[in-house]
Q: What sequence folds into this?
């Protein structure tokens, strides 16, 4: 009887990928705090925030260029670029990646989800495919 009781009392642990937080319109809206109609502005704000952060950390005055056209939204800056390991972390939807975890500002975020949400937005909007290009020096 003790063996049978022990078998029934064993706790089972379930693991759920955080990818689910980014692969539907509902979940992505919850992550960003904005409806899909506002996502282009969310993406632009987050990309500019990242450009400002990079220049600030490199102790250089920011030079930011924003291009919005039929192809999409492009933000370039004179910062040092995103390290490859950071990009890999952004593409790993099981973890949060942020260099600003303890940073508090009313206008610039520190969730560690911003680039993940931007990467996910085109796919969620299209439903079959999406494209995001990340270029760094």
A:
């Amino acid at each position: 009887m003790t063996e049978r009781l022990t078998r029934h009392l064993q706790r089972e642990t379930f693991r759920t990928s955080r990818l689910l937080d980014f692969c539907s319109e509902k979940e992505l809206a919850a992550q960003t705090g904005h409806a899909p109609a506002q996502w282009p502005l969310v993406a632009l704000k987050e990309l500019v925030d990242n450009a400002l952060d990079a220049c600030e950390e490199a102790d250089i005055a920011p030079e930011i260029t924003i291009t919005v056209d039929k192809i999409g939204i492009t933000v370039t800056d004179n910062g040092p670029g995103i390290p490859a390991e950071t990009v890999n972390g952004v593409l790993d939807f099981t973890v949060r990646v942020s260099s600003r975890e303890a940073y508090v500002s009313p206008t610039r975020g520190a969730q560690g989800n911003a680039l993940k949400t931007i990467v996910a937005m085109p796919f969620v909007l299209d439903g079959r495919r999406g494209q995001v290009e990340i270029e760094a020096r």
User: Anything to note?
Assistant: The chain has a mean pLDDT of 81. The CA atoms of residues 84 and 136 lie 8 Å apart. The chain has five helices and two strands.
